[in-house]
Amino acid sequence: MIVFPAIDLKDAKCVRLYKGDMNEAVVYNENPPSQARTFEEAGFSWLHVVDLNGAIEGRSINIDIVREIVKDTSLKVQLGGGIRDLAGIDRWISAGVTRVILGTAAVRNPDLVKEACRIFPGKIVVGIDARNGKVAVSGWTETSDMDVIELVRKFSDCGVAAIIHTDIDRDGTGQGLNIEATEELSIATNIPVIASGGVASMLDLAKVKAANLHGVIAGRALYDGSLDLKEVASFR
């Protein structure tokens, strides 16, 4: 099981949102590369990065920051936010990003996911941001009519490296994971599933492990001290 510390980028700063609301962004570090180094020094091997400006704009925005993180650390970076075409995927893979997350693009252009998996095997993750079982897009600003499990089944045979399931209404709240919905999704697919949204304690990590999920993304709890960085980094 992999624990992914999260860096969400807004206006070149490291922030956390509350239930996906861009107006509820709290700045935790004005130097994201420094935050990435802190995670690396604590013992993490992966880093989950989301370009929030990019997710809204539909194109990568915080480019220099991400490049600096990749260059200055040995962390394996999983990047999402505004990546909507093969050229964008290629740009980031070539820049050293380990895995690229497709979210809105996966909903609006499923064939892109399949083609990307063919060209970049093992490098493509589908990010599913859910609200009441429905998929949200465009940086969580719109909720589609697409059912989460219905979407996942579109990609069962194309080689997606992982699915990230984020419960928007838990994200940034510290209320604990919606482990039930994530486990239900995991049972419905053969693709490895990563839980996200609301991690608050070591109990959440234990639940993820018990559910035999691929991993979990932790954000606010790592920043506000609810979780100890080194303890989380060493959790297996």
From TrEMBL:
Keywords (A to Z) from UniProt: Amino-acid biosynthesis, Cytoplasm, Histidine biosynthesis, Isomerase
Protein name listed in UniProt: 1-(5-phosphoribosyl)-5-[(5-phosphoribosylamino)methylideneamino] imidazole-4-carboxamide isomerase
SUPFAM superfamilies: Ribulose-phoshate binding barrel
Alphabetized PANTHER family for the sequence: 1-(5-PHOSPHORIBOSYL)-5-[(5-PHOSPHORIBOSYLAMINO)METHYLIDENEAMINO] IMIDAZOLE-4-CARBOXAMIDE ISOMERASE
Biological or metabolic pathway of the protein: Amino-acid biosynthesis; L-histidine biosynthesis; L-histidine from 5-phospho-alpha-D-ribose 1-diphosphate: step 4/9
Subcellular location: Cytoplasm
Principal localisation: cytoplasm
Keyword hit for Cytoplasm: yes
Annotated EC: 5.3.1.16
Name of the coding gene: hisA
Entry GO MF terms: 1-(5-phosphoribosyl)-5-[(5-phosphoribosylamino)methylideneamino]imidazole-4-carboxamide isomerase activity
Lineage, highest ranks first: Bacteria, Pseudomonadati, Bdellovibrionota, Bdellovibrionia, Bdellovibrionales
One Pfam family linked to the record: His_biosynth
Main EC class the enzyme belongs to: isomerase
UniProt family annotation: Belongs to the HisA/HisF family.
